[in-house]
Amino acid sequence: MNIERATADELYRLLLDVQDQLNELMADDRLSLARDAEQSYGTARNAVGVVVRHLDAARQVLAVLETTD
User: Fold this and answer.
1) CA proximity to 63, closest of 55, 51, 53, 2
2) How does pLDDT run across 15-64, given as a tens digit for each residue?
3) Source organism's superkingdom (predicted)?
4) CB 20 within 8 Å of CB 13
């Protein structure tokens, strides 16, 4: 998929897929931060939580944009 030409609906589904993949990695303990990143960002679980919140906010923006079209 070309993100620059994707519709809001396609981007919304992509964000859901990314969030699902991150949650799976976190649940399986297959996600880790670089050694020096942990000093700034805490644990990988905390980093995933931040990413998931950003993905959720992006989905909300896309939902609003979709309804205004």
Assistant:
1) 55
2) 888 888 887 877 777 666 666 655 555 666 777 788 888 888 888 888 77
3) Bacteria
4) no
C-alpha distances (whole Å) from 52 to each of 1, 8, 14, 37, 67 are 21, 18, 13, 18, 23
State whether residue 10 is helix, strand or coil. Answer: helix
User: What sections of 28-43 are H helices per DSSP?
Assistant: 37-41
What's the token pair of residue 36?
């020096």
Half-sphere exposure of 56 (CA within 13 A, CB side): 7
In the chain, domain spans = 3-68
pTM comes to 0.54
How far is it between the farthest Cα atoms of the chain?
45
